[in-house]
């Protein structure tokens, strides 16, 4: 990975959508919304609190997470891949 996010920022690669229905029908690409699930590729060192202390992130590299969609999420092309850069606050949960 050629990027190291700062503070509480996280780099995520969005997971591919399942293009088949449970009955086996293949859906066209345009008929599906992008899913808000991805794999964490890189994380920052943590959030700097008001008192100056560093609070480490609750997620780690390799976690599969669900995140909210919003204007605060930055899309970047790095090494010919579309990656998402977001704050830890944009993550809703970790899939276990």
Automatic annotation (TrEMBL):
Heptamer of 7 subunits arranged in a ring. Interacts with the chaperonin GroEL. It is found in: Cytoplasm. It comes from the Bacteria. Pfam families: Cpn10 (PF00166). This is Co-chaperonin GroES. The lineage of its organism: Bacteria, Pseudomonadati, Pseudomonadota, Gammaproteobacteria, Candidatus Johnevansiales. One of its GO terms (molecular function) is unfolded protein binding. The gene is groS. Together with the chaperonin GroEL, plays an essential role in assisting protein folding. The GroEL-GroES system forms a nano-cage that allows encapsulation of the non-native substrate proteins and provides a physical environment optimized to promote and accelerate protein folding. GroES binds to the apical surface of the GroEL ring, thereby capping the opening of the GroEL channel. SUPFAM superfamilies: GroES-like. One of its GO terms (cellular component) is cytoplasm. Keywords: Chaperone, Cytoplasm. Belongs to the GroES chaperonin family. Gene3D superfamilies: GroES chaperonin.
């Amino acid at each position: 990975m050629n990027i190291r996010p700062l503070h509480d920022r996280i780099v995520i690669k969005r997971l591919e959508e399942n293009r088949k229905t449970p009955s086996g029908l293949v859906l066209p690409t345009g008929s599906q919304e992008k899913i808000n699930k991805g794999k964490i590729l890189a994380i920052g060192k943590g959030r700097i609190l008001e008192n100056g202390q560093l609070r480490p992130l609750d997620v780690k590299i390799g976690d599969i997470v669900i995140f909210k969609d919003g204007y605060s999420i930055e899309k970047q092309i790095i090494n010919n891949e579309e990656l998402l850069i977001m704050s830890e606050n944009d993550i809703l949960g970790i899939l276990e």
